[in-house]
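Hey team,

Filing this mostly as a record. A colleague (T.K.) asked me to run one chain through the structure pipeline before their review meeting, and I want the input and output archived in the tracker in case anyone asks later how it was produced. No errors, nothing strange. Just documentation.

Input sequence:
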Amino acid sequence: MAEPQPGLQLQSRPKATEQTTRPPLSAFDRLKVVAFVLFIGLLISFARVEANPVLSWGEALYRSYVADGWILVALLLEAIRQASFFVAERSQRYHQFWRKSVFGRWTKRVAKMDAWTVYRAQRASRTVGVLILLALVLGIFQNRSPLAALASVPGEVWERLPFLFQIVIYAFMAILQFVAIFWFLSRGGVDTYMPSEIQTRFADIWGQDHVIDKVKEGLVFLEQPELVEKVGGYVPSGVLLWGPPGTGKTLIAKAVAGETGKPFISVEPSAFQAMFVGVGAMKVKALFRKMRKLALRYGGVIVFFDEADSLGNRGQLAQGGWRPGAAQTSGVAGDGHWLSDHSRRLLREGASFGLVGAMSPIVVGTGGGGGMGTLQALLSEMQGMEKPRGFLFRNIRKLLGMAPKQPPTYRIMYIMATNMPDALDQALLRPGRIDRIYKVGFPTKEGRKRTYEGYLAKVPHTLTPEQLEKLASMSPPRTGAEIKDVVNEALIHALKRGSVNVEWNDIIHARYIRQTGLPEGFVYVDWERHAVAVHEACHAVAAVHLRPWVPIDVATIERRGDIGGFVSSVDGDEQFAQWRSDFEADICVSLASLAGEKLFFGGDNSAGVGGDLQNATAIAYQMHGVYGMRGSIASLRGRPGAAIGDLKEGVSASLDDRVESTLRELYDRVEQLLREKRHQVLAVAHALETHKTITGDDIDAILYHGAGPNVAGQIYAEETFMQAIEAYHDAANEAHWTHDPVARALPVPPSADGGVEQSTDGAEAKSWPELWQQPGATDETKNEARGREHDA
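Output structure:
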């Protein structure tokens, strides 16, 4: 391989503003105008000879080049122009005089004019120039004055109109079918809203103050671009809003247009999708032509691309930053409602690392969108290089030796919204196209409160400020659209019960319906209903005592799909990271179902605990293998082949043993708790069987003998009533082993006169002491005996 010679180096060309003299012209550039003028004279001579056969060629050439005079004038002007160029190529002073003093002053004066006025004046001047040139040419060929020749054009066209009309008809019929198809295909998908049509303002958006503050910063520079441009910067022109659906991305875009008073162009996701290749690119170019005109007319324009992921992605091989096509999985087994938001997110992450039995991955990212040609056309239009001036305008300035005029600055603000940022092409996100990327996430507690206040202000209601504060705390992360739907559902519930005022119970009912869906109306057999209630009561009691900082939202035994019941907690969105104690509390609440079923049903347990065990195991593996909790320091994420399924022999066995030891330790802890809180578990189970669904406030009322929204917790402080519940549990336990109906009716609270139970199935009433007449054996002794009998 030859070594590069030391004397050969690329010389950088100076910028046009740095050149002291005019760059030399080539021989072709010096002679092309002269050749063109001479050629025109030759054509005129040929036309004269054809019109007058007796005229000699010498006479025709003389008349064309000398007698008419205009060719000599044109040649003289070209000679003066070339002489000026010749001097400017050698004299710095002469060149700078024309560049700065003459053309420079003119350019500065024009720059002070309104961009729209300059655009209209240039278009008018081009039209006048074309008419003058046409008049001169027609005057020469018709041997008349230019004005008379131009005035005769309408008459000449009228005489030849039938012939011209036939030609037009033939051409029109030939291409009509193609023009019509492509024209109709290029319509639709783009809506333009003028400033007076947009009423949305930033004050209409609740719960996204941090995003709005950032967007406002960009609008300051859009309204006053000179603030940043005069110091060498540029105005950011692109904003990407990404986040879950319904968080207000489109609303923010409309508010931007409303606040700035600029035209707003909304591009639908399907706008660039077309059956034929090239139609999408044609629609992109038409869109940008329209935007440039609106930008000049109104000083700026805002274009909004909704569902920007539909634009497509050109590929993943060379992409960086986000990982297009990354698998999005869910590793939460069973219902998992009682887990905190952090733990559910942890399980989803763990599934993608192979730490638990992950579900089939759902790959997102490479959407076809509007086709490669459409995306490339969009990228080309959005690129940093500005569109040059028109053909005639550029060439006239070049003919006069003037520097090409810079195109006007089009103030165009691009706003894109998506809930799949991984699917966007990286070229679309680079600075210059998209300069700001903001996440529009779930509103915080204060944002949720403000959103509830905004939507409730539109309907009659009786909620107090304290209830609104509590509602915001109870609500897990919800979008503005979901909060609006809850308020509307509450209004419908109020109307159904005959009231026009939304009350607290209407809101609570609407939350349950939207959060958990409608129950199926499934009817359990009585002993299995009791088992499900005990299962969920164990979750609830363990959550209250081991994780008091995460309040319970709702507990239910109403079946929904494959879920027989659940206990859900209010997600604490104020805490950013979880600690070892948080994870251990979640594991204990998970294991409470297994410990409780074995404790209350003589060592027996149902298959319903399988999902709880899977969740607890997944969290324990993460604690040991990722987060350095429970003694281990090494993280599996830093190890090649990070999935636990890939670990072999000693490493896998050691990790399994440590996880099992942790689960056993936490199982013993929660079992001891449930043993001590036995009466509380049975009380919560009784309330669940009675009401099917209760709130977290009801559970607190039961445990601490207060008054809840649906349950009077004071009754569970009565010893006789708790004895009746114990008796019912014993009967349900007996039926569990024999699969017979429960011999006792579900106890109900005593009547106002006290001491008498009304059975739920209409059975004969019995006094409390009669309900608690049991054999002398203890409950644990009887359960142990049943277990031995069942094993035998």
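Quick notes for T.K.: The two ends are 89 Å apart (CA to CA). The first helix runs from residue 27 to 51.
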